[in-house]
Structure formats: structure tokens, C-alpha cells
């Protein structure tokens, strides 16, 4: 997985990308993209009930990686 911290306007987002998925957590929302079926990232699946399980998995994955990255700075 790849972990990134990005800015959009004044907001800071944290993202994690696997071979198939990209998940980004923003202060006011989330994004989830299926990179296999939508490589250009046109359809945000974060609100899709069909993808709630993968959304939970990606949230947890981002929390783990973010905690490790924050811990490494100290």
C-alpha cells in the first residue's frame, strides 16, 4: 500500500492506495475509488452500500498506517 498526505484548497487529506483501491479521508468527507473498474477515479464509492465492507477495511488500514507514520516522526 502507498500512504500519502495531500492538500485540496485549505483541507488536509490522508490517503491509502492498494493495487485495487484508493481511499482518502478528508475533514468533511471520504473518497473511495475502485482503480480496476474506474482507473480515472470518476465514481466515488464512499457512499455506496455495496462497498461498505471495503470502506471499513480501508479506513482501518489508513488508521494503522497513519499511526505508524506519525509515530515515526517522533
Largest sheet: 4 strands, antiparallel
The topology string of helices and strands comes to EEEEH
Structural class: alpha+beta
Number of strands: 4
Beta-strand fraction estimate:
35-45%
Helix content: 25-40%
Task: Describe the model.
By secondary structure, the protein is of the alpha+beta class. It is 30% helix and 35% strand. The protein has one helix at residues 52-73; strands at 2-8, 11-17, 21-26, 29-34. A hairpin with a 2-residue loop joins strand 3 and strand 4 (29-34). The longest helix is centred in the last third of the chain and has 22 residues, at 52-73. The model has no long low-confidence stretch (mean pLDDT 92).
Quick take:
By secondary structure, the protein is an alpha+beta fold.
Structural topology:
Layout: E1 2-8, E2 11-17, E3 21-26, E4 29-34, H1 52-73
Antiparallel strand pairs: 1-2, 2-3, 3-4
Descriptive labels:
single chain, 74 residues, alpha+beta, 4-stranded antiparallel beta sheet, 4 strands, 30% helix, globular
